[in-house]
Structures are given as C-alpha cells and as structure tokens.
Design a protein that fits this description.
CATH architecture of the largest domain: 3-Layer(aba) Sandwich
Distance between the termini: 50 Å
Order of helices and strands: EHEHEEEHEHEHHHHHH
Radius of gyration: 18 Å
Helix content: 40-55%
Strand order of the largest sheet: 2-1-3-6-7
CATH class of the largest domain: Alpha Beta
Strand content: 5-15%
Number of strands: 7
CATH superfamily of the largest domain: Response regulator
Shape: globular
Number of helices: 10
C-alpha cells in the first residue's frame, strides 16, 4: 500500500481545522502533517513539513489568500493546493486556479467532500464544481476570461481592494494590509469607481459591502 499523502491545513478558524482533521484522520489515503492559522505559518510549514497536499482558505485573518497561493507554489511547485473557502466560486475559482491552486471547493459543500476533492488532485487532475467547470469551458470556447458580471473586469488586486473596502477598511488600513502606498490605493479606488459605475466614494463603499454580503454586485 502506498504511503498516505501528507496534508497541510491552512484556515484561521479552529473549528474548520478540527472538522477537516476529523474527516481526514480515519482515511488511510491521508495524513495531516500540519495546521496553520496564518499565511506566515503556512509558508513555514510548506518548507518544514513537506506536504503533498494543502487545503487553503482564501481569507486568513482578513488577508486575501490569492497572494498566498502564489507564494506557496513558489516554495513548492509540486504541492497540490485545494482551496476550501466560503468566497463565491464563480468569482474566485478561476483566479485561484491562475494563482496556482489545483482545486476549488465551497465550504457549504461540507468537509465530507474534501477527501473526494483531494483524491482527484492526487490523480493530477483539477477539481471544481460542475457549475465552475461549465463556466470555464464556455469561457475557453469563447476565447475570453470569466465575466462574473462587472466583477470579471476587475484585476486580482482590484478585487482585493474591493473586498477590503467591503469589510470596512479605510484607505490607510488597506495600504498597510496590502503593502501599498496611499496613492496607489487611491488609484485602485478610482479604477473601481470607473469599472463599477460608482459616482462617488460612498457608492463604491456600498457596492463593496454588497459584494462582501452576497458575492455579487
């Protein structure tokens, strides 16, 4: 029998990590080799624990996880990453794949689906819901990127700024969170207003809050 695949769990909610451990530990195909609640700890464990698979949430303590996916892949290009997130898949799945993930599973599908998704990744395949697979196929056939409404027109960084606005952060806090200058954050805010048809800062913040609440605009 082959050795079990080593799995790293990255999520800032202890109850989610506990649930994942409970579903993975009895499965002889997998061995949990580490748990991380922060991006810094996740990167340390990728190097120290040498996992074959990682289960990664897209939001860790408020930080957007797309950048973390890129950093993890840079540390270990052979690591297969499954995003397990509450963030809307039709907005984030394609972006997550572009950042290096091999699978995307919504948390509302339940932790019981995680072993199935990980098994697909071990076969060298991608895992996504039927809806995401259909959307990506249609986009590829049409020769264009995803267009989740006007959200599809946003770059990854613009989407990060929009989400942080939506959770109530001001420009200075966003600048600190994303290691950007205030001027650069102001530029992103102006681009967001133009792309989302917001006439002023208040309308932009309202649209951002709506996005955080519903995953749409």
């Amino acid at each position: 029998m082959a050795d079990p695949a080593r799995v790293l769990i990255v999520d800032d909610h202890a109850i989610v990590r506990f649930g994942l451990v409970q579903v993975l530990e009895p499965d002889p195909r997998f061995e949990v080799c580490g748990e991380a609640a922060t991006a810094m700890e996740a990167k340390r464990l990728v190097t120290a624990a040498r996992p074959n698979l990682a289960i990664v949430d897209l939001v860790l303590g408020g930080r957007d996880g797309l950048g973390l996916l890129q950093e993890i892949r840079a540390l270990d290009t052979g690591l297969h990453v499954l995003v397990f997130s509450a963030q809307p898949e039709m907005v984030y799945a394609r972006r997550a794949f572009g950042a290096g993930a091999r699978g995307y599973l919504m948390k509302d599908a339940g932790v019981e689906k995680v072993p199935e998704a990980l098994a697909v990744l071990l076969l060298g395949k991608r895992y996504a819901s039927d809806a995401v697979q259909r959307a990506m196929f249609q986009e590829a056939a049409a020769g264009r990127g995803a267009t989740a409404g006007s959200l599809g027109a946003l770059s990854d960084r613009e989407l990060q700024v929009l989400r942080l606005l939506g959770v109530g952060l001001g420009s200075a806090e966003i600048a600190a969170e994303l290691s950007l200058s205030m001027k650069t954050v102001g530029t992103y805010r102006e681009r967001l207003k133009a792309k989302l048809g917001a006439d002023n800062a208040l309308q932009l913040e309202q649209r951002a809050a709506e996005f955080v609440r519903t995953g749409t605009l």
